[in-house]
Design a protein that fits this description.
5-stranded antiparallel sheet; globular; alpha+beta; 354 residues
Amino acid sequence: MSYNSFGHIFRFTTWGESHGPAIGCVIDGVPSKIALSESDIQPHLDRRKPGQSKHTTQRKEADEVQILSGVFEGQTTGAPISLIIHNTDQRSKDYSDIKDKFRPGHADFTYEMKYGIRDYRGGGRSSARETAMRVAAGAVARKIIGSDIKIQAGVVQLGAKKIKTDTPNWDQVYQNPMFCPDTSVVDEWSDYLDDIRKSGSSIGAVVECRVSGVPAGLGAPIYAKIESQIADAMMGINAVKGVEIGDGFGMVGPRGEDTLDQIRIKDGKPHFLSNHMGGVLGGITTGQDLIVRVAFKPTSSILIPQQTITKDMTETEIVTKGRHDPCVGLRGTPVVEAMMACVLADQTLLNKHL
């Protein structure tokens, strides 16, 4: 199985399965003499870990990360950094009834067609459990880009329900179980998602990511546009089915004069009068905030019976038991932040070589 790595200079490779003994990653390209310890990584993993509310999977994993290599006396050495998280709460028996059935909406069918074998326990390699290592890699990436670049994300739409404010409070995202920057809708959303969960179904979400402090000049024209790198990073996250930059699809309706980001001079510097383009022109950052929205589909593991087939091509029905998120987009929030950090770290290092 190829394509387990992401990035160019800042490059990480993840390994492990949902119900295996451990998951991990190896990060290459990290400059030397950067202060790094487990305590720099763990807070980001704690935001993503399961079992923190009734609105997420009840699988209990501490997600405690251990640095195995690449750090000496509290500093990176320039050598590959190896990270590991041990799985401690697997319940593989939950999947024994469906080991010969293909779960609709999952990668079961395609993995079987491509490899002739699949790990049916929680999806194996295709499980969102793997994203814990992306979050870990993202924590290391943040050390490269520095504190001047601030990455914040949150759920701005849950199913058909959207936030009600034009000034989201991103600092509140990790203070509520909806990962939402609008606290006025948290109770309503919580009841809504609870009803979805009790009915045995699931719902999708839109996660918006805003990055401030991005310098102008990151990215490159044509085939290395920074928005294409961002889209690649976000589309690689489990359950993501859409990505838009700036106003995205919303730019189709208005006229040209309503979508151009006009430029003036303010305090002796270029000043954009709007940011419909999401902080990117010609594949290169403008110095404005990067604005990205990521659409997560409803979780495919649901308790409502669905039609499917077996490995021997027999028609049957399936009910997916086990512990699953009724909305994977909630815990997808720190994953979106992490992948953005990885893109920016990679682009920062690439920019130094251009």
